[in-house]
Amino acid sequence: MTEFENENIEEQNLWSLEDENDNQKWMKKSKVKIIVFLTFTFLILLFNIIFHNQELFIFNLSNQTDDLLASTLVFNILSYIFIIITFIYMIFYLHFYSRRRKMDLEAQMNSFDHFKKHYNAFDLLGVIPVFLAILCFINGLFFGFATVIGPSMQPTFCQGDYVVIEHFTQDYERDDIMIFIHDDSKLIKRVIGVPGDVLMVNSNGVFINGTLVEDYFPSTILITNEIIPVGSYYVMGDNRHNSNDSRSFGLVLEEQILGEVVMRVNGGTCN
């Protein structure tokens, strides 16, 4: 055998060793990717079970109230479709990976390029459950979303405004804006009276601690020097002449409150 032929054989053997190491590396990466995918898919299911009954949980498909933005419903449905498609592909990829593990080295090398294409596709789809699991966690524990319907908070918030709500607020202060449940509807109003304030409501208007805060009084609910109890709030809309608020239904109780509005995401239309 000539020296030239020996060099070709050594070069071929060196390439085969590198290719084998690369193959083993991709197989290990596949195993990790499958574990990560299954873990985050399980977290999505777990978060949906835990937070499904929350009024502001974005993946609550049973929440068909008027303040559920159409794009939010579409996002929910598309998210579940993507999860299903990705999970189906994961089953195919897991079967493909298991078969490849049983192959001898030569067969693995012959299918290496085909294997990398499937890995890249699975790697791309694997981002979906990670993103959705993080979104479920943040939405379930910290922040929710809602759409402003109606003119009661104009000009602060307009029809169609998409707002972010903080879940974990415990104590609300005067001028905070809260979202709460009243008669199976979500309302957004400004806090006017807080626990400990002296409230008086009569034909002259609404008084907090002796100070007139609103002279327009469209209801017949009269209150005379009542101290607002702990866990209760007096609220009104910023558009005082067109708002269904505490002047009509009285104090808002702590258990009715869903959270505090902290941000407006997009601008709606104020007529």
Task: Write structural notes for this entry.
The protein is α+β, with helices and mostly antiparallel strands and 271 residues long. It contains 6 helices and 11 strands. It has helices at residues 3-51, 70-101, 105-110, 112-125, 127-141, 246-249, and strands at residues 143-147, 162-166, 177-182, 185-193, 198-202, 205-208, 211-214, 223-227, 232-236, 252-253, 257-266. The strands form 2 sheets. It has a 7-stranded antiparallel sheet. The protein has a 4-stranded antiparallel sheet with strand order 7-6-5-8, with no helix packed on it. Helix 1 (3-51) packs parallel to helix 4 and helix 2 (70-101) packs antiparallel against helix 4.
Features:
271 residues, alpha+beta, Umud Fragment, subunit A, 2 domains, 7-stranded antiparallel beta sheet, 6 helices, rod-shaped
What is the element layout, followed by pairings?
Elements lengths: L2 H49 L18 H32 L3 H6 L1 H14 L1 H15 L1 E5 L14 E5 L10 E6 L2 E9 L4 E5 L2 E4 L2 E4 L8 E5 L4 E5 L9 H4 L2 E2 L3 E10 L5
Antiparallel strand pairs: 1-2, 2-11, 3-4, 3-11, 4-9, 5-6, 5-8, 6-7, 9-10
Helix pairs in contact: 1-2, 1-4, 1-5, 2-4
